Amino acid sequence: MDIRDVIQNQIGSHPVVLYMKGSADFPQCGFSANAVRLLRSCGVDQIHTVDVLQDPAIRQGIKEFSNWPTVPQLYVNGEFVGGSDIMTEMYQSGELAALLKPAH
């Protein structure tokens, strides 16, 4: 199974997937911590996180998979949403909560 298959399986197996540095309980960067905070503020209790620091193939592969150069990266119901800045904008407008409502 190549890295694209691994990533596709991860995002297809969980309604909310966050590729981040660290874990939801111990984020390793401010952007990842912000992403987790936003998800929890929207009522998401079950966040499937993938720590890109633990696997260099995932760290590079997710950037190529999404054509997005940075992490964190949020996927909801198999669809790429964006990174921390986009999540913040969506949270402020109410779009993030609306998107996540059916996912959790």
3D architecture notes:
- This protein has five helices and four strands; from the N terminus they run H-E-H-E-H-E-E-H-H.
- By secondary structure, the chain is of the alpha+beta class.
- The longest helix is centred in the middle third of the chain and has 12 residues.
- The protein has a four-stranded mixed sheet, with helices on both faces.
- The protein has one domain: Glutaredoxin (3-Layer(aba) Sandwich).
- The chain is 48% helix and 16% strand.
SSE layout and pairing:
Layout: H1 3-13, E1 16-20, H2 30-41, E2 48-51, H3 56-66, E3 73-76, E4 79-82, H4 84-93, H5 95-100
Parallel strand pairs: 1-2
Antiparallel strand pairs: 1-3, 3-4
Helix pairs in contact: 2-4
How many domain regions? 1
At CATH level 3, the topology is: Glutaredoxin
Would you count the extended β strands for me?
A: 4
Strand order of the largest sheet: 2-1-3-4
Q: What is the subunit organization of this protein? A: single chain
The low-confidence runs, each spanning 5 or more residues with pLDDT under 50, are none
The number of helical segments is: 5
What is the beta-strand fraction? Answer: 15-25%
Please identify, by name, the CATH architecture: 3-Layer(aba) Sandwich
* Largest sheet, strands/sense/barrel: 4 strands, mixed
Secondary-structure-based class equals alpha+beta
Overall 3D shape: globular
Specify the CATH class.
Alpha Beta
Spatial extent as radius of gyration: 12 Å
Kindly report the name of the CATH homologous superfamily: Glutaredoxin
Q: What's the end-to-end separation, in Å?
A: 29 Å
Mean pLDDT: 95
